[in-house]
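User: Modeling request: complex.
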Amino acid sequence: MSLLRIAWRSLVERRLSSFLTGLSIALGAALVVAVLVIFSVIERSFSQAAHGYSIIVGAKGGRTELVLNTVFHLGRPIENIPWSFYKEFSEGRFSRAVKVAIPYCLGDNYKGYRVVGTTPELFSELEYAPGRKYEFHDGRNFATDGFYEGVVGYLVARRTGLKVGDTFAPTHGITTEEGQGHTHDEFRVVGILAPTGTPNDRALFVNMEGFFLLEGHAKGSPQPQGPDGSEAEESDEAETRAESNDGQAGSAGVSNESNAAVGDHQNETSAADAHSGHQGHTHNREPLPEDQREVTCVLVRVTDPILGTHLPNVINEGPVAQAVSPLRVTQELINTIFQPIRWLLLVLTTLVIIVAGVGMMVAIYNTMSERRREIAVMRALGASRRTILMIVLCESVMLAVLGGAAGVLLGHGLIRVANPFVVAMTGVSIGLLEFDILEGLLIPGLVILAAVVGYLPAMSAYRTDVARVLSAAP
Amino acid sequence: MLLLEDVAKSFPLPDGTRLQILDIPELRVGEGEQLVVMGRSGCGKTTLLHVIAGISLPDRGRVEVAEREITQLNEVSRDRFRAANIGYVFQTFNLLPAFSALENVLLGMSFAAGRTDTSRAEQLLTRVGLKDRLGHKPAMLSVGEQQRVAVARALANRPRLLLADEPTANVDTGHQQQIVDLLRDTCSEENIALVLVTHTPDVASQFERVERLEDLNQVARSA
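Assistant: Request completed. Predicted assembly structure:
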């Protein structure tokens, strides 16, 4: 009969105590697993949020700010860059080095969710994760000539109830507070994105051509006013920023010229809007002249990785814009914000496991007095002190391994159970088989812990005075 | 087979003095011989068996079992030697409650390296009349059945010497004879030397060689 089997039978004999001890280990291990997996998924979704392009080109300013408002739809856009600069990527001097250049125009929101003016290539040319192209939960991508068509991120659709065929009118400003209730023309929802687990689940995407035509979005156009006739507070700030940038940058979403007259759609014509869903509403179908256009930033995928490192240098040396690597900035964010929190939580959960380990030591140690005779009998039958020591250590290790394994299953099971809620809240889906590499250290770590905490009761068993115990009355 | 020469054993007392328990000039048991040692309670019968089994070491003297002087062996070697050569039947059976009858017998084998033999364990339990109780745990067995399991366990490793410490003390009269017959017959069949200690004359009377510990032990003699 192997030592493991002897140890196992001993654990089964004290099943309640063994179960409770194993449970405490399992709960500690489940906590570690939860922390590891959740942070692993957060880190991955963070680092993959900017997948599909290697450079973001935007107005000069903070690198982190540019990445945050472009990739994560957080913070305020810095400024705009001229349309002519964007054209350098599509047909100008940078075009040979560029595979895809997607313009991004920011400045509006819908019920607090960012509205991004862009081109259909965002979804047709870029992947949102390695090997994963954008898909549509419902409907289709907006068309190049569908000026007032839009696509809604999965979470936005869920939370706002927008569905294909509905219309929505972006509000001026990047938050609900800005723009003071000024509402733009309506866009028709033609597609709902399938969940991507990226911040794009929390945004709406409209045809850039329609976006340009919205009131106040043309360069040099007046700021739109709120219902009370007051001008959007954005304008003063925008003006200040524009002045500091040689008057070059107007906001793609918000014009800088606040002193202009307030009006209706700047380029409104009598042409009726051809698409459905707009009742009694007319849209301009003539594209905004290029000299009135600006973009907030450009997502660039280069043709060659070497160019990917060279191109930003060229852009950054110029006076117009900056180019940042979203991956690098994201990694810096992860390293400075997430990793310390992750390690702190790991230390706390490790302490929970150590406390559970001490509990295990106490539980096994307390059984030693009632097992003295059993140990003495085994010794009398020929078991060496070392054999007895190994049996007790095996018990400790088995409790830790079984508790740890149960904890791993429990941790992943809980994550699986919580997954629908996590998806609903964040758009990030955590699979049952999402593992973190550090989980591989959990069981070996528990074995070491078990060997350490099992040593005291094992030594107590080791030192059993066989003759005295056998001579005593049972 | 068994030789004790000038063996003395004492235990420390709280006042710092020592209590002498054994002082045996000589005791010999031949191959396959069966010896009953009688004595009143507390006269050192169990201590004698512990010294023979190598569970405790004597203060002085020589203990030789199967031509090996176990008093010269270190603890690990003594444990190994005991597992391979000495069977032990306790007064209180001392079966391990977590294990079935069969597992208790196998446990006795597992401590002697390479000697686990399930068929022999089953055979022994069949011989002691417990063929239908192999999977039963001690709590599910009667007192007599428990002692028979203990006997099977002691015989598991084909020992050359079987030590039995008051094996019938906790067994009712009906089962006493059964246990005695089992020990005597099995040891005869397998040529195992037997040292059985008891304070029951009825048990002692069934063996050819009976010694009183008071006669062997100078301490008891002088007490």
